[in-house]
Automatic annotation (TrEMBL):
GO terms for biological process: coenzyme A biosynthetic process; pantothenate catabolic process. Residues 190-402 are annotated as: Phosphopantothenate--cysteine ligase. Binds 1 FMN per subunit. This is Coenzyme A biosynthesis bifunctional protein CoaBC.
Length: 402
């Protein structure tokens, strides 16, 4: 399989299972390096671990020899996956609070690779609110878990807390690698904008549009699912952040432009947000009062054109810039005109007229306009549109060096 694991062995009676795990991984062609905590060496010896991994075993954060040969930062990033087995209650607590007081916790804090933990502890420790709170924190941070299983424990009690068997952990690791082999956008960074912008009139009122942000959020999620690092710049919405996406909330068009510029450089930028074309030229400091018989006069100014600005960059321009055209008539004609006018690479044009249900709805009928022509995609869910667009973006980048 040509993959590698950094196995962090915690101090618990289940540490002996790590030896079998190493053997099983080796049979799958997965290379292992190991870190032993001080407590782990009370249960398994560095010699037994090294004999199975065929690699030096690491256990000392302050070993100058190790730092010269394999610094702890390099060690934490040299593997494709970090596996903590057993993950004791103590290790989980340290991970959840960001401690780094030994080699194991330092490697876990310094890594930029995915982490899988196999918890193992007494049933009361597992069920304790502090451990469950730490588990929720780790899960929210993107840490993957397997187990624990339920059964008899070395302490004589019965219940959840047994570390999963080596066969199950090995299967989870191989499944992870097989799944991630299907992430063709890994190593790519993508910028996605979504939602409306709110352009303030006074502290109470604003100019906006009916965009829900659903399509942009779906695109961000689809790109992240294919392995891309995604920055989602979002106007005001009621949507939850997609998993694995970095979200930055903004309100106005000026805010959105600044956030997009800060996110550069990226490989691709997909501008799905429905940015307001105009703003009030002079925002009132106080609420504009209603006066009988007199209507307020609002002077409008043009907002920055985010799509055109990024498309026109001479340095740091994304390799692919995709704009959206929300139209109510002459969808293709207006989309073609926007493609030429903005200088972007693709336009996704859709009909948002009355009765289409596009704004706020869950379906979309889009046309993909490129320099090569027009594609009429069938009406489908916004998630399906997002997956199809992500697939086209993947095709674009095939053969292009990261």
């Amino acid at each position: 399989m040509n993959k590698s694991v950094l196995l962090i062995i915690g101090g618990g009676i289940a540490a002996f299972k790590s030896l079998e795990l190493i053997r099983l991984l080796s049979k799958q062609g997965i290379r292992s390096r190991a870190i032993l905590t001080a407590a782990a060496k009370e249960f398994v010896t560095p010699l037994s671990v090294a004999s199975l991994t065929g690699e030096k075993v690491y256990d000392d954060l302050f070993s100058l020899t190790d730092e010269a040969e394999m610094g702890h930062i390099q060690l934490s990033r040299s593997a494709d996956l970090l596996v903590v087995a057993p993950a004791t209650a103590d290790l989980m607590a340290k991970m959840a609070t960001g401690q780094a007081n030994d080699l194991a916790t330092t490697a876990l804090l310094a890594t930029d690779k995915p982490v899988l933990i196999a918890p193992a502890m007494n049933v009361r420790m597992w069920q304790h609110p502090a451990t469950q709170r730490n588990l929720r924190t780790l899960t929210a941070d993107g840490i993957m878990t397997i187990g624990p299983d339920e059964g008899d424990m070395a302490c004589g009690e019965y219940g959840p807390g047994r570390m999963s068997e080596p066969e199950a952990i090995c299967a989870a690791i191989t499944d992870f690698f097989q799944h991630n082999a299907e992430k063709p956008l890994r190593g790519r960074k993508m910028l996605v904008t979504a939602g409306p912008t709110h352009e303030p009139i006074d502290p109470v009122r604003y100019i906006a549009n009916r965009s829900s942000g659903k399509q942009g959020y779906a695109i961000a999620a689809a790109l992240a699912d294919l392995g891309a690092e995604v920055v989602l710049v979002s106007g005001p919405t009621r949507l939850d952040s997609p998993r694995g996406v970095t979200r930055q909330n903004v309100e106005s068009a000026n805010d959105m432009l600044a956030a997009c510029e800060a996110a550069l450089p990226v490989d691709a930028a997909i501008f799905a947000a429905a940015v307001a074309d105009w703003r009030v030229a002079s925002e009132a400091d106080q609420k504009i009062k209603k006066k009988e018989g007199r209507l307020p006069s609002l002077s409008l100014a043009e907002n920055p054109d985010i799509l055109a600005t990024v498309s026109a960059l001479t340095q740091g321009r994304p390799a692919l810039v995709v704009g959206f055209a929300a139209e109510t008539e002459a969808i293709i004609e207006n989309g073609k005109a926007k493609l030429a006018r903005k200088g972007c690479d693709w336009i996704v044009a859709n009909d948002v007229g009355t009765g289409t249900g596009t704004f706020g709805g869950d379906e979309n009928h889009v046309f993909l306009l490129t320099r090569e022509g027009v594609e009429d995609w069938p009406k489908q869910s916004k998630d399906a549109v997002a997956r199809d667009l992500a697939a086209r973006i993947t095709t674009f980048f095939q053969g292009v060096d990261v």
